[in-house]
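Homework help board

Subject: predicted structure for assignment chain

Our instructor gave us this sequence and asked us to write out the predicted structure in token form, then describe one feature. I got the tokens but I'm not sure how to describe them. Can anyone check?
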Amino acid sequence: MWLWGRGAEHGPCMVHLKYRPTKKSALKPVAIVGKGITFDTGGLDIKPSSAMRLMKKDMGGAASVIALAQWAAESNYPGPLDFYLALAENAVDGKSFRPGGRDHRPQRDES
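My token output:
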């Protein structure tokens, strides 16, 4: 998400929503993940405008997860749920990811 969102005014983010039923549950939480890329231009590999109009579906995963979270809360779903939304805007900028480019994020020292 970092690569695709770094050209946007507001950087990419990961949102974590927790749903816990009011009654204690012995069930383990289920994780539900959705991707939300808004206005997917394809970075600097610019898509034709007709293809960009269809890119609204790239946020469909995140939208579905939000709808499921709302349903769980409104229906008093009996089990715990964790919702994760990976969100970014794939905008064009000097920092945008270039096709065939390298990821220049600082690497974590795992030692």
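Reply (TA_rk): Your tokens look well-formed. For the description, you could write something like this. Residues 60-75 form the longest helix (16 residues). That's the kind of observation they're looking for.
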